Amino acid sequence: MEKAIIKVVENGYYFSENISTLVVKGMVKKDTMEALPNLDLNERELQILELICKEFTAAEIAESLNLSARTVEGYRQKLIDKMGVKNIAGLVIFAVKHNLFPL
Questions:
Q1: Under CATH, what is the fold of the domain 43-97?
Q2: Would you kindly state where each structural domain of the chain is located, as residue ranges?
Q3: Which residue of 20, 43, 57, 101 has the fewest C-beta atoms within 10 A of its own C-beta?
């Protein structure tokens, strides 16, 4: 516990040895990641996908990009259709699986 507190004070975060091992294994797996299919995503779709992955709501995305929430919902549905997923969780999993944005 003391080690964790010291690391948090020094670095602002602490990962247990188990988590660190998983992160390293994940970095090694990057070489074997699935190839990204040609989705033909435009810049706005990528912006919205990144904000979805950062847990922004449709209203928050709309405000940050000067769009209406309804427009954001339309983009979100286009992303779901293009990626062949069922919901927002599927979008995030797809983005992580294909390393679209840094974690």
A1: Arc Repressor Mutant, subunit A (1.10.10)
A2: 2-32, 43-97
A3: 43
Q: What is the pLDDT along the chain (103 residues), one digit of tens a residue?
A: 777 777 667 666 666 666 656 655 565 555 444 556 677 889 999 999 999 999 899 999 999 999 999 999 999 999 999 999 999 998 998 888 888 887 6
Whole-structure pTM over 0.70, yes or no?
no
Angle formed by the axes of helices 69-83 and 88-97, to 10°? 60
Rounded CA-CA distance 10/7 in Å is 5
Q: Going by C-beta distance under 8 Å and a sequence separation of 6 or more, which residues neighbour residue 86?
A: 80
CA distance 11 to 39: 38
